[in-house]
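## Example record

The block below lists the input lines for one assembly entry, exactly as stored, with component labels intact.
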Amino acid sequence: MRSELLKGLRMLDLSDEKGALCGKIFADMGAEVIKVEPPCGCSSRNIPPFLEDQPGLDRGLGFLAWNAGKKSITLNLDCEDGRQLLRMLAEHADFLVDSFPLGYLQSLGIGYEALAALNPGLIHATVTAFGDRGPGKDYKAADINGWAAGGAMFLMGEEGKPPIQMSVPQAWLHAAAEAAVAAMIAYYARAADGLGQHIVVDMQACVAWTLMNEQAMPLLHGNYLRRSGVFSGAVGGRRKTVYRCADGFISFIIAGGPYLGSTNAVIAWMKEEGAAPDWLTREGGLKSLTPTSFMAATAADLEELERTEEAVQKFFLGKTKKELWANILKRRLFGAPVADAADIAEDPQLKARGYFVTVEHRGLNRALTLPGAFAKLSETPVGPQGPAPQLGEHNGEIYGALLGLSAREIVELRAVGAI
Amino acid sequence: MGKLPFEGIHVLDFTWYAVGPVTTKYLADYGADVVRIESAARLDGLRLAPPWKDAQPGVDRSQFFASFNTSKRGITLDMSKPEAREIFLRMLPWADLVTESFTPKTLRNWGLDYERLRAIKPDLIMLSTCMQGQTGPHRDYPGFGNLMAALSGFYHISGYSKDEPCPPYGAFTDFIAPRFSACALIAALDYRRRTGKGQYIDMSQYEAALHNLAPMLVDYFATGRVLGPEGNKSSRYAPHGAYRCADEDGHERWISIAVGADSEWSALTKVLRIDDSAGRFATMRARMRDRDALDETIGAAVRGRSAEELTEALQRAGVAAYPVQNCMDLHRDENLEAFGFWRWLDHKEMGPSPYEGLEHRMSRTPGDLRRPAPALGQHNDEVFREILGMKDDEIERLRRDKVIY
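Predicted structure tokens for the full assembly:
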């Protein structure tokens, strides 16, 4: 059942992988999201990795994940018949999202201005790499370039080694989700006067926004942060953030401030099991951890913290991820397992909340399991509305039922290569 | 400027740290009257976090807090006191939205759960955002976004090898969840406008963040494969990575490069003056097969050269490239500058301060940082007079009794 939240709203999704999450969020909220693809299929269908490592238009894992619940039509923007169809579709749409190079749609006569003349209520979001005004506005960018340009990459990795990204690249996702928020804001604005507008999203800015305000550090503290592997680069000392355990890794932090209670609680646990070193069990225990110590930390404080980290590391080596997680929950420690896909799939919390959703993919003739509702709304539940569409799966429905084209007209449009 | 989209929308905002405040910032920058309810008895931790004005700590000196709380007003109520809770309930009819990001039991303990509030304000929209949601065995788990990044799988796919994770910087999931919760909130506002119905939004930051790893999970459920860290290895581009260029003023400089098509490879060899006439790396398969040698070749070709100049030359030739920028570079970046990303606002205590602007721009109803973040309790008098019609002597008494605190 389609979510009631945005039921009745329609989005044309002309984006590739750079904007896919925008339409996915809208589809999850109940909007009808129509993926408009060239006759050979959106390039994002060919992005590896593939299901079972077998390439195929319906097998890209990213495609399957971020296009779930959308419809698909084929439409050739390179011919005038195709562009005419897009204009007709735009008259029936509330939103359009694209991630083409700047100026591409204008050059075809179907830019925002042209479409808004036909449908003044249209909200058009363009996902860009570096905005639409600077010297790099026409630059090409893979995800890694946005990660680098926005400052996140410089901070990830070990000193002396190259900066790195994650195995599931993240930069475009931030930009696409930002496009979703902006489109929602513009939609709320539209109720006042019926007018839409054009939105430009800047991936580089979206990545810069993730830096926990380290961006302001050079201006206020006169310095900038370097990457430091598993150590957190907080002012006043490097704190280890990843510990090895018996069967993997655990994220944990020994520190004062908000971490003080948790730090004392793990020491108490070590005492219970007779695993705390003598110097930690002596009266007074850890001396360096006043609530504000991370700024005022002396060399002696830092040495004590490091010795504590060593003791905790030794203790954790004898525990499994599962044991540690159980104790983190029981003792209210600030920690978390470094979970992999298997841990997440088996997580009792997600199970209790009925998080994962299974959809049937007819083209693959198999069920696929997807992340479920991104939030639980009491009146209008949201979540995946179906599988990712097969190429042109909804041509008949959209061109026939929505635009009112006859079967003969559709055949003609197919014959001239517009569909 | 014309009317902003959320003008007339009133928000009572209990959220703190990052996810909640960043969510309500979207509303505030677009015209909503967002009143942050804070307390000196239980400070928002970001008020104590660097960077600070002149590198000196203080509750009204954190730019970290300021950046996440633009365009809002700030009041203080010590909600552990019954009288503060009564004052909040008196303000409730004024509000369209109530937002909070405590662990689930906090509001229950104050007797301020959604059911109670809805009895007073039937069409209220309420957002609760916490680590793992309002239900389930782990609902009371307290934590920060860095731990959530570990729990939700981001740490595991970060690193050079399986030997040790090398996590993304900071509280990564804190910057995923707000976009999802903002979409839900705005859609709920619209739903209320159409139907008159409010609702309750239970947002688990974990469940939102997993959407950014959806392919990894689809894969696991379908095939049992567990994705691990792969450094800068890509199954789509080769070369693909960061390569060390010439240092500048003693600062290390790297360039990011991604090559998809063979034509881009050919263009790159000309710019970098790499001799591949033997065609060793001419095809994608060849480049993928011999990635390490490829990376060495690129590394040798860019060593000692300027990351900026190479970026310009590579981009002119149609190759995706950009310097790997540090936080200082971000302030000199011409593209961010042209987009208008950096903004200076005059904060009550901090004076002119650097804020990040919006990450998007709208053509007709542009949002803006309408004012700097509030100092702690900066708008107490104004808000209590305006919303509750409180007299000065009552406000004074409440201050004395540390209810307004």
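The domain at 240-334 of chain B is CATH 3.30.1540.10 (formyl-coa transferase, domain 3). Chain B has two domains: 10-212+340-400, 240-334.
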